[in-house]
Amino acid sequence: MAIERTLSIVKPDAVGKNVIGKIYDRFESAGLKIVAAKMKQLSRAEAEGFYAVHKERPFFKDLVDFMVSGPVMIQALEGENAVLKNRELMGATDPKKAEAGTIRADFADSIDANAVHGSDSVENAAIEVAYFFAASEISAR
Ligand code: YYY
Ligand code: MG
């Protein structure tokens, strides 16, 4: 299996619940390494750019409003099969449908306030990691 990188965001709801460490523990316990991290208050332009693929969707404005409602914790995760592994740790987009023991089942409130973001493909992961981190901010481990 290939060593991959993926982009993860702890969203404002989970930062507000003070569970960054508990979510990081899920990543590290699954063998994913945090190779870059920053806390940030996103601007509207940053949130809109990040979620540009969803700009025609009915939930886009609410999604952007939510993503700028408080600071987020952004990290690049590295490990074997990191993209899929992170998606499995996250659980389904709607926490009501997320498998027991996943991050969203345990920490998310609703489909819009759903605790975490994770890249959905290796291609998008490269784009999303580069959206938030310069190469010099990522540490090989
Ligand atoms: O990748 P993932 O976050 O699981 O879901 P996406 O389908 O990419 O949607 C991105 C984001 O948009 C989702 O995490 C919450 C929000 N959203 C929503 O509020 N309502 C929907 N019906 C679908 C998505
Ligand atoms: Mg997605």
TrEMBL record:
Cofactors, names only: Mg(2+)
Subcellular location: Cytoplasm
Keyword set includes Metal-binding: yes
Listed SMART domains: NDK
Domain of life: Bacteria
Main location: cytoplasm
Catalytic machinery residues: 117
Keyword annotations of the record: ATP-binding, Cytoplasm, Kinase, Magnesium, Metal-binding, Nucleotide metabolism, Nucleotide-binding, Phosphoprotein, Transferase
Matches recorded under InterPro entries: NDK-like_dom, NDK-like_dom_sf, Nucleoside_diP_kinase, Nucleoside_diP_kinase_AS
Reactions it catalyzes: a ribonucleoside 5'-diphosphate + ATP = a ribonucleoside 5'-triphosphate + ADP; a 2'-deoxyribonucleoside 5'-diphosphate + ATP = a 2'-deoxyribonucleoside 5'-triphosphate + ADP
EC number(s) given by UniProt: 2.7.4.6
Example GO molecular function: nucleoside diphosphate kinase activity
Binding site for ATP: 11, 59, 87, 93, 104, 114
PROSITE patterns xrefs: NDPK, NDPK_LIKE
Residue ranges of every copy of the Nucleoside diphosphate kinase-like domain listed in the record: 3-140
Pfam families recorded: NDK (PF00334)
Function, in words: Major role in the synthesis of nucleoside triphosphates other than ATP. The ATP gamma phosphate is transferred to the NDP beta phosphate via a ping-pong mechanism, using a phosphorylated active-site intermediate.
Family that this chain belongs to: Belongs to the NDK family.
Subunit record text: Homotetramer.
Full protein name: Nucleoside diphosphate kinase
